[in-house]
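Next up, sample data:
>
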Amino acid sequence: MQKRHFLGLGASLLAGTAALPTLAAAKKSGGNGPVLLTVTGDIDAPNRGALDPALDQMMAKQKLAFDKAHAFDFAALAALPSVEIRPTLEYDGRRHTLRGPLLSDVLRASGAPASIANCALRAIDGYAVLVSPQDIARYRFIVATHLDGKPIPLGGLGPLWAVYDADGIPELAARPLAERFGQCPWGLYHIAVRKA
């Protein structure tokens, strides 16, 4: 990819992230915002087709493959019930308010089966973790869309972050702050579901 094209793409993505609240309002009146999260694998409620190597460049470069998926834009995520958590973050050692739907609700909306083996949570930089259904429930993972009342920007920790309130989970709270969020990819953009 040419450098100028890549930089232009980055500027477009940043501008698009700033418009997330507007996109949410547009969705209610029938608009479609850019896809922020794609859920693939063993799901029963797809709303898009297979990976297109020409148009799904990042997924193709990260060696993903799927024949169906459920794509969520900001409005679709915002339409799900949201929860707030206030973990102490490793980046500045302060408590912050994070808001978004429970990961379990996102999975349910995508048609994931009630019994899954695990989920692979993948960030835009390629970082990926496998999360068990037990950890999803026990840690009450959320797909955070907001940090301290504002949409999480691309280029920061967002626009989506799979995260939990480590302060409220004794075995995680006992760890050093820098070791509490290894299962929490920021810049989340893809989830692969594998049924049990």
